[in-house]
Structures are given as structure tokens and as C-alpha cells.
Write a structure and sequence with these properties.
35% helix; single chain; 20 strands; alpha+beta; binds flavin mononucleotide
Length: 392
């Protein structure tokens, strides 16, 4: 095969995504053996058969085959990319720091994997430079309810249901409107050399739907797709402009143990925001850790629970919308947020201006919040114009 053909084969077949499994067994000393495999597939229900395709030159397969004819297929979860990489190397003792337990059939099941399938070789078919190893299923179960790890175009990822996004016409409308505001976001991002994002309130969650520019405090390559629960102190701009019912929904997110004074405090915060036109969050550290927790939850990391995230969000209260700033002090501006309205006067999304790492004077913060509210107004006008292009 010429390198031309090989390149084309890899490029074209790389367009097809796979899951990732680790095929395991124990060697004659009882040590774990493993091989990372993307070519795993279900084959037959009656009788239950599965298959995978090891490379004829694979040393990992040679070791597995030598160990006997029984294997355990481990379906990896989307937080197990590191395990996938550790096993996908040509060496012995790959299981250092990978906790596992024993399957009913006696082979390693990697802790936290999505599912395991115990099996025994049924037949090995010769297929070019690979074997097709067909195995009869002896035992199988779901191990943990997380999304699987996916492999596609040389990179790892997780499953996002397209149908959810496109079935949500409300969100599609909002995305179109955010797109109209993109030039305004770009101008603002360039002026302060930072990131400007747009956040929608979708089904009771704050959803970051667009980002322009880069911020110094980002904890992930992209903030797009981040989702946050809608509860104090976050999402205050939606709560401030959304009417009494939305304000009540927001306040329901307060700690159940919180007294009426907390409720009154946040009602006042909402009033302040609607009179001055923006909200601010000071301090990078706490917000950064919440953002990290949120990213982990969104990719299905079992170490973060929705309730844990809600508690972490509540703990941000201190840095949000301080009643007054001391003119002689400097502050870390984490984020300022202002509303963009549709022609019916509803907040479609918020524009968010991210602050730099360094401390800012009160004057510098005011320059940013002024520019932000101007930009949000400009975006509101752009939406109004786009919705009725024939009206002067
Ligand atoms: C995502 C992924 C999928 C893989 N799928 C297969 C596969 O289906 N068959 C195979 O022989 N090797 C596959 N490999 C390669 C092996 O896991 C392993 O990296 C390689 O074979 C190491 O060399 P060795 O097998 O000689 O030890 C895959 C590797 C990765 C990272």
C-alpha cells in the first residue's frame, strides 16, 4: 500500500467516531494486562457475541492472547481519557495508579468505567494486518451511569445530543439573536483586550452560548457550552429584569436554611441592578473554582454533584455586587454583566465582560461597566432593527 492510499484511508476512516474500550485479562502472575481498543463492536444477540480488532503486530494483544481465552471489555467513561492514554502504550505494568476490581469471570474491571463485558473467544478471523476476535459474552453489566469517552479525528470527546439543541426552538432563536450582537461583542473584546461572552437563561439554567476574544482567567479552552444553575448570586441580571415570578424562582435557589433577611438582601440587589443597568463580580479565585467544578460536572465527572455545584455557587455571594467600592482601593474585576433586550422588552441574553488578572482602580472598573452598558444598548438596538428592518 502506498503512503498515499494509507493517508487517504486514515483521513477518510477518521471521519467515523468510535467509543473506547480497554480489553483486560490477568497474566500468569495475577498482574493486570490491558489494551486500548476503538474497534470494539456488538455482533450478535442470539447467541450474544461481541468483537474487537487487534493489530497483528500488537505486543499488548500478544500478552492478552498468551494469558488465555477469557477477557473483560471495559467501556471507558468521558473522564477516563488519562486511563485510555496510559493503557495505549507499548509497555508492561500499565495499571500503576489505575484502580480496578475483579469481574465475575475474574478479569480486571477499571473503577468508574461505564460498563464491563466478560467474554470468551469464540473465533479469531484473519483480516489483513488485523485479527477479528469474536467473543461470546459470559457476563455483563453497567458499572456507572456516565457518558462514554469518544474518539474522533484523533481527539477525545463526549456525547452531546444534537436533537436537544435543535428541538429547542427557543434556544435557536436566542442563538440567532446573539449572532446579531456579535460585532458589538467583538468591538468590546478588542477595546479591553479580553473575552466577551453571551449568556442565555434556558430551562432554568444559565447557558454560555457565545464567546469572543480571550480572557486571562479562563479555566478551559472555551467557555461556550458552560451551564450554571440559576440561583443567587449568579444570573442576577435576569432576576432583576424578569418580573416578580422570575425573581421568586431565583430566590428559591437560596440556601433552604437562609432567613428572610437573605431574601430581602437579594431583592435589594435585584433593584440595584435594574436601576444601574449591570452587575459585577469581584475576585477571580472563588469564581475560578466554581467554573472548574461546573466544567467537570458538565462532562459527567462523578466527583462533582449538582448539589455540590449549587452550594459552591451560593458560596460566591461575597464577591458579587458589593454595595459600595472604596475609591482608594483596587479590585479584581472578575466579570461585569448587562442585559440585551428584545423588542418586547425581555432580556434575551446578557453580555459579559471579563476582567484582567491585575487589580483595577474604581475608575478603571467604571470605564468597563460604562462601555459594557453602552455595548448592551447597542446590541439591543441591533436586535430591534434586525427584527423589523423596514421600520426607521
Ligand atoms: C483510541 C484508541 C483506539 C485504539 N484502537 C485500537 C484497535 O482497535 N486495535 C489495535 O490493534 N490497536 C488499537 N489502538 C492502539 C493500541 O491501544 C496500542 O496503543 C498500541 O497497540 C500499543 O502498542 P502495542 O499494542 O504493541 O503494545 C488504539 C489506541 C487508541 C488510543
Amino acid at each position: 500500500v502506498t503512503s498515499d492510499v494509507a493517508g487517504r484511508y486514515r483521513q477518510v476512516l477518521g471521519q467515523y467516531p468510535t467509543g473506547v474500550v480497554v480489553v483486560t485479562a490477568l497474566d500468569d502472575k495475577g498482574g493486570p494486562l490491558g489494551m486500548t481498543v476503538g474497534s470494539f463492536t456488538s455482533v450478535s444477540l442470539d447467541p450474544p457475541l461481541v468483537a474487537f480488532l487487534p493489530d497483528k503486530g500488537s505486543s499488548s494483544w500478544a500478552a492478552l492472547e498468551k494469558s488465555g481465552d477469557r477477557f473483560c471489555i471495559n467501556v471507558l467513561g468521558n473522564s477516563q481519557e488519562d486511563i485510555c492514554r496510559k493503557i495505549a502504550v507499548r509497555k508492561r505494568d500499565k495499571f500503576v495508579d489505575i484502580p480496578w476490581h475483579v469481574s465475575p469471570q475474574g478479569q480486571p474491571v477499571i473503577d468508574g468505567c461505564v460498563a464491563y463485558i466478560d467474554c470468551v473467544i469464540d473465533q479469531v478471523v484473519d483480516a489483513g494486518d488485523h485479527y477479528i476476535v469474536v467473543c461470546a459474552v459470559t457476563e455483563l453489566d453497567v458499572e456507572s451511569v456516565t457518558d462514554p469517552l469518544l474518539f474522533f479525528r484523533g481527539g477525545y470527546g463526549s456525547f452531546t445530543p444534537l436533537s436537544l439543541a435543535s428541538a429547542d426552538m427557543n434556544l435557536v432563536d436566542q442563538l440567532r439573536q446573539v449572532d446579531i450582537a456579535r460585532p458589538v461583542m467583538e468591538t468590546l473584546a478588542v477595546r479591553f483586550d479580553t473575552e466577551v461572552t453571551a449568556v442565555c437563561l434556558v430551562h432554568g439554567e444559565l447557558c454560555l452560548v457565545a464567546a469572543v476574544g480571550l480572557s486571562e482567567t479562563a479555566v478551559a479552552p472555551s467557555r461556550v457550552g458552560q451551564r450554571m444553575p440559576f440561583l443567587p448570586p449568579v444570573g442576577s441580571v435576569f432576576a432583576a429584569y424578569g418580573g416578580q415570578e422570575l425573581l421568586n424562582t431565583w430566590l428559591l435557589g437560596l440556601d433552604p436554611a437562609a432567613g428572610p433577611e437573605q431574601r430581602a438582601y437579594y431583592e435589594e440587589v435585584a433593584e440595584t441592578i435594574s436601576s444601574r443597568g449591570y452587575s459585577v463580580a469581584l475576585g477571580h479565585e472563588n469564581s475560578g473554582s466554581v467554573e472548574r467544578a461546573m466544567t467537570r460536572l458538565n462532562v459527567g465527572d462523578p466527583g462533582v454533584t449538582p448539589e455540590g455545584l449549587r452550594a459552591a455557587v451560593r458560596s460566591l455571594a461575597e464577591g458579587y455586587n458589593p454595595t459600595e467600592l472604596n475609591i482608594d482601593s483596587r479590585y479584581e474585576l472578575h466579570l461585569a454583566s448587562a442585559p440585551v433586550f428584545d423588542s418586547a422588552g425581555r432580556v434575551v441574553f446578557t453580555l459579559n465582560l471579563w476582567g484582567p488578572e491585575r487589580l483595577l482602580t474604581v475608575g478603571e472598573i467604571t470605564a468597563r461597566t460604562n462601555a459594557l452598558t453602552d455595548a448592551a444598548e447597542e446590541a439591543t438596538h441591533a436586535l430591534r432593527y434586525a427584527e423589523s428592518p423596514f421600520v426607521e
